Amino acid sequence: MYIVHSTFAVPEGKAEEVISIYKNRSRSVDQAEGFIDFLLLQNEKRPGEITVQLTFETKEQYLSWVRSQQFKDIHDLEKKYPDQELAAIVPTVRQYKVVAT
């Protein structure tokens, strides 16, 4: 398995708005080859810290998703979000190979 975390700090008072956006996400990634799971995580001690966790069967399948037109379309929409403070968020991305379960 291959897990990717995209972690970002949400501007003060906007965590619930971001959570709502992800609750209503397009679910395009769910159709990607090798996709296993999507989780949205909120840091308990720092509620403005949000992490998107994606799980794929393999790194190659994840990279195929990242190179896809659907991925590009979703991220282009994010750049056009009306709240420019949210649109400007740049996540820290960490990638993990699962080595034991």
Automatic annotation (TrEMBL):
<dbReference type="InterPro" id="IPR007138">
    <property type="entry name" value="ABM_dom"/>
</dbReference>
<dbReference type="InterPro" id="IPR011008">
    <property type="entry name" value="Dimeric_a/b-barrel"/>
</dbReference>
<dbReference type="Pfam" id="PF03992">
    <property type="entry name" value="ABM"/>
</dbReference>
<dbReference type="InterPro" id="IPR050404">
    <property type="entry name" value="Heme-degrading_MO"/>
</dbReference>
<feature type="domain" description="ABM">
    <location>
        <begin position="2"/>
        <end position="90"/>
    </location>
</feature>
<protein>
    <submittedName>
        <fullName>Putative enzyme involved in biosynthesis of extracellular polysaccharides</fullName>
    </submittedName>
</protein>
